[in-house]
Amino acid sequence: MLLLIGSFLGLMVIGLPVAISMATSSVLYIVFYGVAPDIIVAQRLIAGVESFPLLAVPFFILAGNLMNIAGVTGRIYSFAVALVGWMKGGLAQVNIIGSVVFSGMSGTALADAAGIGTIEIKAMKDHGYPIEAAVGVTAASATLGPIFPPSLPFVIYGMMANVSIGALFMAGILPGVVMTVLMMITVAVFAWVKRWGSDTPFSLKMIFGASLEVIVVMMVPLGIYLLMLLGLSLNFAILIGLAVLLACDWYFNFSAVMALMTPVILIGGMTMGWFTPTEAAVAAVLWSLFLGLVRYRTMTFKTLAKATLDTVETTASVLFIVASASVFAWLLTVSQTAQLLSTAILSITDSKWVFLILVNLLMLFVGCFLDTIAAITILVPILLPLVLQFHIDPVHFGLIMTLNLMIGLLHPPLGMVLFVLSRVAKLSVERTTIAILPWLVPLFVALILITFIPMITLWLPMEMGLIR
C-alpha cells in the first residue's frame, strides 16, 4: 500500500498528470509484488471505461460546448438580468441565477466557469464591481453545475457505487436550491456591507417578461400531460407542445425560453421514463444543435467542428483518468486498503455522524489534490463499504462526496475552476484564491446542512419512488 500510494504521490509532486501517475504507480506495484499478471493492467483499463452509463460523459460535455458556441449563454444572462438585475448587487445575483440555469444544461463546473462565467466577470467588471468580487461569486456559483441535474460526477459515482443515476439527478435538485438561496443571501450581505447598488432599473415590464418566460416553459410539460389525458399519443402530444412553444417564442420574441426548456426536457424526460440518463445526454446534444442551427442560427460548421474537437479532447482526458483510476482502485482493494481504513475508523468511532465529519475532512483534503473524476473512482470502492455499514444512504453520500470535491475545485494546487477563472480574469492564482475565500462560507454552510439533514437530499427521490 505504501509503494502504491507513495509512488503515486511522488509522481504527482514532480509534475506528472494525475492519470499517468496512477497508471505508472499501478504498474510498478504489479511488477514489484507480482500480485497479478501484467496483462491485468490492460484488462482493468478497458473494464474501467466499458460501461453504458459512461456514454453520457461525451454527450453532456458536447452539449455544454454547443450551448457555449450557440450563444445560449448570452441569452441566459439577459434573462437573469431581467429577473434579478434590479436587486442590490444585481449583477452578482445575476451571476448566480445564470449559473443555476446553465447548470441544467452542461453538468460540469468547468463549462459553467468558462462559458457563462466569462460573460459574467466582464459585465461585473464593466459595471464597477471589484474584479475579486466578480471572480469569487463566479467560482462559488460554478459549483452548482454538478449539483443540479444533469451532472457528470453523478454519472461516474452512480456507475462506481451501482446507484441509480436518475435518483442522484433528482436528489441534487433540492440541495441545489438550498445552495442557491445561501449564495443569494451572501450577495445581499456583501451588497449591504459594501453598498453595492442595483445594475438595472426596477421595471415591472422586464420582471413580467422574465416571469412569463418561466411560466411558458413550465406550461409545456403540463400541456403535454393534459393532451395525453385527452387520449392523444405521447409523440403527438410532444409535437403539439413543441409547436405551441415555437409559436410563442416567435410571436413574443422571448430571449431565453428555448434555452430554459433544456433542463425541463432532460429532467421531465427522465422523470416520465421517456429516456435513461445516458439517452438524456443525447437529447441535450440534439436540442443544442436545434437551437444553434435552426432557432438562433448562431452556429456555423466551423464552430461546430471546434466544439466537437474540444469534446473529443476533454472526453479523452476524462476517460483516461477513469481508466487509470479503475486500475488504481482495484489494487487498493487487492491490498486490503479498504479493510485497513475500515478497521481504523471503527476503532475511532461507531457514530455515523462522526464518520461523516471525518469523511468530509478527508474529501475536502483530497479534492485539493485530485481531479474530481479520479477522486470518485478511487474513493468510492474504499468508502462505500463503510457507508453501508453505518447505514448511510449511498445517494445521500453521493451528494456529500460531489459537493466536497466541487469545493476542492476552488483550491490550489489542482483546483481547475481556480485556474480557469484566474486565466479569464487575468489575475494571479494567489489573488484568485484570496478572492474566492469569502465565498466559501455559503458552500460550507450548505455542506453542513446537506451532511446532517439527509432529507434535503433524499426527500425528492423518495417522493418519486426512485429510492426507498
Automatic annotation (TrEMBL):
User: Topology in the membrane?
Assistant: Multi-pass membrane protein
Please verify whether the record's keywords include Transmembrane. yes
Which molecular-function annotations from GO does this UniProt entry contain?
A: transmembrane transporter activity
Coiled-coil boundaries: none
| TM region positions | 96-117, 129-148, 168-193, 214-244, 280-298, 318-341, 353-384, 396-421, 433-460
Instruction: Report the locations given in the UniProt record.
Output: Cell inner membrane
- UniProt keyword list: Cell inner membrane, Cell membrane, Membrane, Transmembrane, Transmembrane helix, Transport
Q: Where is the TRAP C4-dicarboxylate transport system permease DctM subunit domain?
A: 5-234, 255-455
- Which Gene Ontology cellular-component terms appear in the entry? plasma membrane
InterPro entries assigned to the protein according to its UniProt record, in alphabetical order: DctM, TRAP_DctM
The protein's job, in short, is: Part of the tripartite ATP-independent periplasmic (TRAP) transport system.
Q: What is this protein called?
A: Tripartite ATP-independent transporter DctM subunit
Supply the source organism's classification. Answer: Bacteria, Pseudomonadati, Pseudomonadota, Alphaproteobacteria, Hyphomicrobiales
